[in-house]
Amino acid sequence: MRVIAGRFGGRRLRVPAAGVRPTSDRVREALFASLGDLGGVRVLDLFAGSGALGIEALSRGAAALVLVERAALAAAAVRENLATLGVGGEARVLRADAVAAVRRLARAQERFDLVLLDPPWADPAEPERALRALATSGILAAGAALVVETARGRALAPIPGLLAVEERRYGDTVLHRLVHRPAGVTEGAGTGRPEDPMQDATGGRGAGAPAPHVMGRALFAASFDPLTNGHLDLIHRARATFPELVVAVARNVEKHGTFTVDERLEILHAVLDGEPGIRITSFEGLLVDYARQIGARVLIRGLRAVSDFEYEFEMALMNKRMYPEIETLFMMTSQQFFYVSSSRLKELVRFGANVGDFVPSVVARKLEEKLGGRS
Description:
This protein has two domains: 25-212, Vaccinia Virus protein VP39 (Rossmann fold), CATH 3.40.50.150; 216-371, Rossmann fold, CATH 3.40.50. 34% of the residues lie in helices and 22% in strands. It has helices spanning 25-35, 52-59, 72-85, 98-107, 126-137, 212-215, 229-241, 261-272, 287-294, 306-322, 342-350, 361-371, and strands at residues 42-45, 64-68, 91-94, 112-117, 140-151, 162-170, 173-180, 217-222, 245-251, 278-284, 296-303, 327-332. The radius of gyration is 23 Å and the shape is elongated.
């Protein structure tokens, strides 16, 4: 077995000879694609086995990992895998029964943002015991995500304090996603960091609202050189449609723009910081690969003219072939921004024209500083 992606991507893991049913590569790939960015997340792998799930989370940016395994041979294999990977203080192994481990962690007042549970399928009552212990333990951060792997055909009993938000089937395996909803969390109470994919999966909207992972995280990527009011129109319309929108600056190492990538990010933060549900970032490489990495299921693409459609349509088909779970949403530019393009605006600035009606004020000022008076 190998780690799929991240800093340990491709590294081999030892699997105990007996008594362990490793999660398949296909299921692990789907699981971590849906979880997205794990930077800074505290992870508990409650039925570790070989440790593959927890180590995959650590490989993809998790800040801390506790792996729980009651079988001596399996626990030894997990420790060996951690040692082989050179993991230091980021991860530790507890040899204990799942419920006993939860109580031990509670006494130590530890907290987790993500819990992975792949209990033995031979005991159908094991998931419920573990989930009930977790729900009442106090070790779950508000809005913590829990992912439970079960055999097909086995339902999870409702657990007070845990909200079921998603169920996906992969052959004989079913992944159930739940969210910790502590008593007293009310509508609009949003918990967790706004930029954290493990944030309250209802986006702070209350238990009755759909979760972002159900409706889909949307991704709007462009060069944003510069950001225009047309871009902002698409961003706000997309955000009104999806609970979470990732606005990403595409890094092109072969192309030098008017603004550096850092300057473009600074502008986006200046204009959009404080707006709920919007996350600003940058990426290199293929857009579809980045969408898979962050767990985005929808790509937002703007169309200003019919001539744009043929190219965008071909790209949408290629992206679908490379990442079957992705969908592309084409949004027509609003009429007042139909003729606004970055290249046209930069040309106007070079000839001394005022572009304040077409871009945010911070962009107009920075364009004047960069290009004013050039012809």
